[in-house]
Amino acid sequence: MGTPKPRILPWLVAMLDGGQLEGVAWLDERRTRFRIPWKHGLRQDAQVKDFGIFQAWAEASGAYIPGRDKPDLPTWKRNFRSALNRKEVLRLAEDQSKDPHDPHKVYEFVDPEARDSSQLDTSPETEEGSTSDAQEDILELLSDMALVPLPDDMAQGQYPQLLSPNLDNPILCPNPTPSENPLKLLLVPEEQWEFEVTAFYRGHQAFQQTIFCPGGLRLVSSEAGDRKLPGQPITLPDPGMCLTDQVVTEYVRRVLDSLGGGLALWQAGQRLCVRRWGHCHAFWAIGEELLPDCEHGHKGEVPKDVDSDVFDLRPFVTDLIAFMEGSGHSPRYTLWFCLGELWPQSQPWVKKLVMVKVVPTCLKALLNMARSGGASSLENTVDLHISNSQPLSLTSEQYKAYLQDLVEDMDF
């Protein structure tokens, strides 16, 4: 007969009462609030003892049998957190996991009597987390991986291990010389984004250019607009170079001539912003790379002389994580602009005089990386290229971890 799986609340109360694990302790005399060490494996000062509570619960619950199973710190940590989150008698009171000196989380019993009745906890200890857990689960998996290029042997899954004097079994430890999460380059203000810009005149591709744009880009007519304005001017070509219909050519020229100072797009932290200086009205939407979202209409009109957000990186990364976990819906990242006319909701977009597509190449690369791993089992190795940074070879699990870490560090 096997030993029955313990309930986490009685087990945890026993751990707190016994003081067996460093940093796991009651915070008040009534024994209603307690702290759990919550150090990220990315930190250079991370040690085995910082993750003792996660391994202890993995062993107690039968999820990890020393000597038989491979140590899996991210999974231990994720399962422990999910088990606590499923208990209605507990709530997360404080999240100090990013404290540079003492990272931890504080939980508390919502009812003091719930602690003493924890022996009566008979709710099933399932492995499924709630929907709200899903996004955090992915980044917990990634949070303890190395943030530097891996040697060939490490790329095959042979991660460095650290033996604890108090534990007989090895546990995953961080790379001894971790660097910053490479995905965070996306949030560095001075890091220039690369954009692929494609212009269509009446459905004909008239222009395409991929360019790094310090300070953003600015779509202008052949006269290049006001060069004193911020953003790198991208001159849309004269329609006479690609169109034969003289009437259409004349109307396209009118649209371009009304651009004035131009239509500007630039990065501001985790967002992309737009603004127009000319008289030419512009409507925007986020659609597929090969097709604007005409069925659901535009997202908004680009305001004149006023900054406006058109893209937020955080929901994109959140949706990307969900996609990698099997949601089946890949996040969109392609910006479409309709210049000089209303959005093509009731007619094919190829009938519009001027449509401009803008693709942030780094976002396209992020999605391609997810797809290269199948966006399901994710066991392949992918090459990371963010802006003009050095390429990194990452496992798909490392990549997911970096995404979760990126979400957690965004200012939302």
TrEMBL record:
<keyword id="KW-0832">Ubl conjugation</keyword>
<dbReference type="GO" id="GO:0005829">
    <property type="term" value="C:cytosol"/>
</dbReference>
<keyword id="KW-0399">Innate immunity</keyword>
<keyword id="KW-0805">Transcription regulation</keyword>
<dbReference type="GO" id="GO:0000785">
    <property type="term" value="C:chromatin"/>
</dbReference>
<dbReference type="GO" id="GO:0000978">
    <property type="term" value="F:RNA polymerase II cis-regulatory region sequence-specific DNA binding"/>
</dbReference>
<dbReference type="InterPro" id="IPR017855">
    <property type="entry name" value="SMAD-like_dom_sf"/>
</dbReference>
<dbReference type="InterPro" id="IPR036388">
    <property type="entry name" value="WH-like_DNA-bd_sf"/>
</dbReference>
<dbReference type="GO" id="GO:0005739">
    <property type="term" value="C:mitochondrion"/>
</dbReference>
<dbReference type="InterPro" id="IPR008984">
    <property type="entry name" value="SMAD_FHA_dom_sf"/>
</dbReference>
<dbReference type="InterPro" id="IPR036390">
    <property type="entry name" value="WH_DNA-bd_sf"/>
</dbReference>
<protein>
    <recommendedName>
        <fullName>Interferon regulatory factor 3</fullName>
    </recommendedName>
</protein>
<dbReference type="GO" id="GO:0043330">
    <property type="term" value="P:response to exogenous dsRNA"/>
</dbReference>
<keyword id="KW-0597">Phosphoprotein</keyword>
<dbReference type="GO" id="GO:0032727">
    <property type="term" value="P:positive regulation of interferon-alpha production"/>
</dbReference>
<dbReference type="GO" id="GO:0050727">
    <property type="term" value="P:regulation of inflammatory response"/>
</dbReference>
<keyword id="KW-0804">Transcription</keyword>
<keyword id="KW-0963">Cytoplasm</keyword>
<keyword id="KW-0010">Activator</keyword>
<keyword id="KW-0496">Mitochondrion</keyword>
<dbReference type="GO" id="GO:0042803">
    <property type="term" value="F:protein homodimerization activity"/>
</dbReference>
<dbReference type="GO" id="GO:0097300">
    <property type="term" value="P:programmed necrotic cell death"/>
</dbReference>
<keyword id="KW-0391">Immunity</keyword>
<feature type="region of interest" description="Disordered">
    <location>
        <begin position="93"/>
        <end position="134"/>
    </location>
</feature>
<dbReference type="GO" id="GO:0051607">
    <property type="term" value="P:defense response to virus"/>
</dbReference>
<keyword id="KW-0539">Nucleus</keyword>
<dbReference type="GO" id="GO:0031663">
    <property type="term" value="P:lipopolysaccharide-mediated signaling pathway"/>
</dbReference>
<dbReference type="InterPro" id="IPR019471">
    <property type="entry name" value="Interferon_reg_factor-3"/>
</dbReference>
<dbReference type="GO" id="GO:0005634">
    <property type="term" value="C:nucleus"/>
</dbReference>
<dbReference type="InterPro" id="IPR019817">
    <property type="entry name" value="Interferon_reg_fac_CS"/>
</dbReference>
<dbReference type="GO" id="GO:0001228">
    <property type="term" value="F:DNA-binding transcription activator activity, RNA polymerase II-specific"/>
</dbReference>
<dbReference type="GO" id="GO:0002753">
    <property type="term" value="P:cytoplasmic pattern recognition receptor signaling pathway"/>
</dbReference>
<dbReference type="GO" id="GO:0042981">
    <property type="term" value="P:regulation of apoptotic process"/>
</dbReference>
<dbReference type="GO" id="GO:0060340">
    <property type="term" value="P:positive regulation of type I interferon-mediated signaling pathway"/>
</dbReference>
<keyword id="KW-0051">Antiviral defense</keyword>
<dbReference type="GO" id="GO:0034142">
    <property type="term" value="P:toll-like receptor 4 signaling pathway"/>
</dbReference>
<keyword id="KW-1017">Isopeptide bond</keyword>
<keyword id="KW-0007">Acetylation</keyword>
<dbReference type="GO" id="GO:0001227">
    <property type="term" value="F:DNA-binding transcription repressor activity, RNA polymerase II-specific"/>
</dbReference>
<feature type="domain" description="IRF tryptophan pentad repeat">
    <location>
        <begin position="5"/>
        <end position="111"/>
    </location>
</feature>
<dbReference type="GO" id="GO:0035666">
    <property type="term" value="P:TRIF-dependent toll-like receptor signaling pathway"/>
</dbReference>
<dbReference type="GO" id="GO:0019904">
    <property type="term" value="F:protein domain specific binding"/>
</dbReference>
